[in-house]
Amino acid sequence: MRPEQGTLISRAQAMEALLELLTDQPVIICNGFPSREAHKIADRPTHFYMIGSMGNASAIALGVALAKPNKQVITFDGDGNVLMGMGTLATVAALRPKNFIHVVFDNEVYGTTGNQPTISNVVPLEKVAKSAGYVNVERVLDRDDLVYEFKDMLKKDGPSLLLIKVNEFVEDAGRVLHDPPDITRRFMKAIE
Amino acid sequence: MCLKMSGGKHSVIESDVFVQTMQDMGVNFFTGVPDSILGGIIAELMNRRLYTPAVREDEAVGMAAGAYMAGKTPAVLMQNSGLGTSLNALISLNMIYQQPCILIVSWRGQGGKDAPEHLVMGEVMPQLLDTVKIPHRTLTEKTVIEDFRWVAETFMKQRIPVALFITKGVVKGLHP
To answer: Do B69 and A66 touch (CB under 8 A)?
Structure first.
């Protein structure tokens, strides 16, 4: 049981609040339900929706951030994804891209495959990021805090990590309709 | 594409010539995980401040994909063991999303003459890439210009990862 359970919002609610604060920034969204939900909430050409290659969302975002140092790059990640590619927390921290904002929706489960538990209930991922060397790190539980902290991170030099504890609720969202090669082309054009 | 390979026909390829040839091809984002065979190339890339180190090969492949979408022409350097580590990224990111990438892969375990951990991958690597439909070619001193031309053409045409295998002694290492 999670002690914070009663206070949590859903990932889709959190995502909606974040997307309201974003305009034309590149957003790399991890595989599984997060990409489907983002696609349903706001389908923007600046969104790179992932299917597959779990664990690599932050690496892709890092590549974009290094190649486009004047654009703020956001990644929407999950606890299972971060755990799978945890080395990338270290790489981001070592390379210190100022334009990198890492959002982690932490529901403590592999939601897309049937809510099997991850280990983020005992491993605080924001502390791992802080220890690795992320410059700004916050852990939030509700909408007001996440809006406040995300606005703040948009103004600061990163790398930053915002960990949002969310519940297990999954929005009724279908698969992303665009073909993957179209997602690539659309994203490339949008961030040129 | 302008290739200026120096030296005699059968001489070892110098690391700076290798890197310059890649740059002349337009490659402008280099990442990867080191191998001894690639030591000279990585040292030269670091001298030129062109190398972004990764901690795992699938991370390097992910970074290269991001850099590609942001307008760069990427190359990923790795030992062939890293093909195992990065296989899912290569087939469920690069191949599915049509994101090209030049893989510079050192061929450990070639001909069965290497440490035990390299022997299985060393033997099956070409078939493995054939199975997942990643085009590949082995760099030799004699065919170096054709090899790089093939990499450039295949990269542009197919928009998927392309692998160039580097065997021991073909490119000058750190300790000649």
So the answer is: no
Q: How big is the CA angle at B123 (ends B82 and B100), to the nearest 5 degrees? A: 40
pTM: 0.95
Q: How far apart are CA A30 and CA A83, in angstroms?
A: 13
Torsion, CA A153, CA A84, CA A17, CA A96, rounded to 10? 10
Provide the pLDDT for residue B9: 53
Which amino acid, one-letter code, is at A77?
A: D
Decide if pLDDT at B5 tops 80: no
Backbone angles phi, psi at A160, to 5 degrees: -125, 150
| Closest-CA residue to B60 (of B104, B97, B27) | B104
- The number of residues in chain A equals 192
Cα–Cα distance for residue pair B17/A75, rounded to 1 Å: 37
Asked whether the ipTM of the predicted complex exceeds the cut of 0.90, the reply is: yes
Chain A hits for B161, Cβ within 8 Å: none
- CB-based contact A67 B72, cutoff 8 Å: yes
Taking CB atoms and an 8 Å cutoff, what residues of chain B touch A50?
93
Of the candidates B119, B106, B83, which has an alpha carbon nearest to the alpha carbon of residue B35? B106
CB distance A8 to A166 below 8 Å: yes
Q: How far is A138 from chain B (nearest CA, A)?
A: 24
